Automatic annotation (TrEMBL):
Pfam families: Gal_mutarotas_2, Glyco_hydro_31_2nd, Glyco_hydro_31_3rd. Gene3D superfamilies: 2.60.40.4040, Glycosidases (3.20.20.80), glycosyl hydrolase (family 31) (2.60.40.1760). Coiled coil: none annotated. Residues 158-515 form the Glycoside hydrolase family 31 TIM barrel domain. Belongs to the glycosyl hydrolase 31 family. Residues 40-113 form the Glycoside hydrolase family 31 N-terminal domain. This is Alpha-glucosidase. Keywords: Glycosidase, Hydrolase. CDD domains: GH31_glucosidase_II_MalA (cd06604), GH31_N (cd14752). Residues 527-613 form the Glycosyl hydrolase family 31 C-terminal domain.
Length: 636
């Protein structure tokens, strides 16, 4: 059962697809207060209660003990000190003494104090008074039934093409045809399967959306066709900002048709991103979404069938006005002897240019013919960019034909695309962070998801990449991605690349099972990844487990996440079969309920299968298009 409470006049987000009659917030069953225009309510928790949800968020599967913010943030340092990442997924569920879910449909900032200030209390602060709150309950009191109830209200999750479950290689950047061909050759020579190679910002002409630098990629359409004949899909990036340039038709059309975000005085808001000064399309307007979505045709007409949307929080390196102020301040201090206070004040001025709250507050959108400050809709900006593309693709190609995933997101965007978890680091702790995000993202409808395997920032080591890949074998998006200036972390670049072949080959053997599990989860509003607490609610060790998650109805996954170890301890909440997969080998061993140390070599992928269950494996191939999904063997 879902009950909707309405306060004020909410801005429409289209997160919920079912119609619910809104009950006046005055009848909200929880005590609340309004202070300085903010709606604040709270509820008590027992010591044994677990709080799930919030989708792509820092810290654990159990969200207790920290303060989180719903605020899409361009911040690559995903440490425990952070309160928000790139997404705003406003679904929370209490499980224990009571079991219920809360979804707050509000596109601005929300603060979730989940037992931080007071361990036995959750306090939620909505930064406004115009919103809808949905309370989700179910007679079974089972967490999975709460999730299914909620997911049925927000609509079916996006299903990507079958080939999007293949292994994918990305880097900032493969800037030209020779670099891309080199990647493909490297994988082919090492006999490591591969389906996709990514084109980061350098494929564009001067970083302009929907352009291709013909010097770097001559005869682009022919090149895309040639790669497809080799079984390789090229996946270009699209950014939110449109370069300000005379003669660039996308920008000029945006100006002519009044499609860009404005300042309060009606001027186009100008910010700096990769190409320099850009305009930001006002994705709050359907007309703008239709216009921007149709621009993807320039690339799909060339044969492109996959995209990743980026920088759409929106990320702003600086605004023209903010930069001018900072430069004037620096100029005014020229020749001065800068003491401690003056130096750090100047330093903070320049550090504060990027994604400045002052800049966000100066942006205005047109909604229903009225100007609305960006602060009120920040969290749905990136979601509406991706919606623009997703709706256009569905209209032109039908469902499931185009790969699409995004960095920024809000609940509702799960119907148009997947997500990746942003610019992580080559840190061992980020293997676990990836694992913990998977069930939380699934709760919010985002099934096609995954992290940058091996880590995006910093230099990855051979063992880290292998262990990261062994988790990525199970994530729907299996993409290795790294940053400019870091070591090359393509699988073939490491010593003894046959170990990488063994791990990636396991992925291809599992694709029929993973794809079937994915489709079933989408169609049934189910989860691919679940906390152990969902399946074993009366088992305290399972309820507190944060390093293992359930996969489908058959499996439990348990990645090795520490350096210089031969394996790890696992907890089995019931008798299971331990499976070690490596290349075409599958070693099985029945194990009883309890704690076990399992040895896992760097070229092995650990997996547990529940008693009485089996999963299919197919013969491996170099491309998903070459997989025989009918000739299967079963293990369990």
């Amino acid at each position: 059962m879902i009950t909707k409470y309405t306060s004020g006049t909410p801005i429409r987000t289209d997160a919920v697809v079912k119609d619910f009659a809104g009950i006046d917030i005055n009848k909200f069953p929880v005590d609340y207060k309004i202070i300085d225009g903010k709606f604040i309510f709270s509820f008590d928790m027992q010591d044994s209660d677990i709080v799930f949800g919030l989708g792509e968020a820092p810290r654990g599967i159990n969200k207790r003990g920290w303060i989180y913010e719903s605020f899409c943030s361009d911040d690559p340092f995903h440490t425990e000190t952070k309160s928000s990442l790139y997404a705003a997924h406003n679904f929370l569920m209490l499980n224990g003494s009571k079991t219920f879910g809360i979804f707050i449909d509000f596109p601005a900032k929300i603060r979730w104090d989940i037992g931080y200030t007071k361990p036995s209390r959750t306090e939620i602060t909505v930064d406004g008074t115009d919103f809808d709150i949905y309370i989700i309950e179910n007679e079974s009191n089972k967490p999975i039934d709460i999730v299914k109830e909620f997911r049925s209200a927000i609509g079916q999750s996006y299903i990507p093409p079958f080939w999007a479950f293949g292994y994918q290689q990305s880097r900032w950047s493969y800037p030209d045809k020779a670099a891309v061909d080199g990647v493909i050759k490297g994988y082919n020579d090492a006999k490591i399967p591969l389906d996709c190679v990514y084109l980061d910002i350098d494929y564009m002409k001067d970083y302009k959306d929907f352009t291709v630098d013909e010097d770097k990629f001559p005869n682009f359409a022919e090149y895309v066709k040639e790669k497809k004949e080799q079984g390789i899909h090229l996946i270009p990036i699209i950014d939110a900002g449109v370069k300000k340039e005379a003669g660039y038709d996308v920008y000029e059309e945006g100006v002519e048709n009044d499609y860009f975000c404005k300042t309060e005085d009606g001027e186009i808001f100008e910010g700096g991103v990769w190409p320099g000064i850009v305009g930001f399309p006002d994705f709050m307007q359907k007309e703008v979404r239709d216009w921007f979505g149709a621009k993807y045709d320039r690339l799909t007409d060339a044969g492109i069938d996959g995209f990743w949307n980026d920088m759409n929080e929106p990320a702003i390196f600086y605004s023209t006005k903010g930069l001018e102020k900072a430069l004037n301040k620096a100029k005014s201090l020229e020749g001065e002897n800068l003491d401690l206070s003056k130096f750090f004040n100047l330093k903070d001025t320049f550090l504060g240019l990027s994604n400045s709250p002052e800049d966000y507050s100066s942006i205005y959108h047109m909604i229903d013919g009225k100007p609305v400050c960006h602060d009120r809709v920040h969290n749905i900006y990136g979601a509406n960019m991706t919606r623009a593309a997703g709706e256009h693709f569905a209209k032109k190609f039908g469902d499931g034909k185009i790969l699409m995933f995004s960095r920024a997101s809000y609940i509702g965007a799960h119907r148009s695309s997947g997500i990746w978890f942003g610019d992580n680091h080559s840190w061992w702790s980020h293997i676990l962070l990836n694992l913990k995000m998977l069930p939380s993202a699934n709760m919010c409808g985002f099934l096609y998801c995954g992290a940058d395997l091996g880590g995006f920032n910093e230099n990855a080591t051979r063992d880290l990449v292998l262990r990261f890949l062994a988790l990525g074998v199970f994530t729907p998006l299996m993409r290795n991605h790294s940053a400019l200036g870091t070591v090359n972390q393509e699988c073939y670049n490491f010593e003894n690349s046959e170990d990488f072949r063994d791990v990636v080959t396991v992925r291809y053997r599992l694709i029929p099972y993973l794809y079937y599990t994915f489709k079933k989860a989408s169609e049934n509003n189910d989860m691919i990844f679940r906390p152990l607490a969902f399946d074993y609610p009366d088992d305290k060790m399972a309820r507190e487990c944060e390093t293992q998650v359930m996969l489908g109805n058959e499996c439990m996954i348990c990645p090795v996440y520490e350096q210089n170890v031969s394996g790890r301890y696992v907890y089995l909440p019931e008798d299971m079969t331990f499976v070690k997969l490596s290349g075409e080998n599958a070693e099985t061993k029945p194990m009883e309920k309890g704690v076990h140390f399992i040895e896992v070599a760097l070229n092995e992928v650990p997996l547990f299968i529940k008693k009485g269950k089996q999963i299919p494996l197919c013969k491996p191939a170099m491309r998903t298009s070459e997989l025989n999904t009918e000739d299967l063997t079963y293990i369990g």
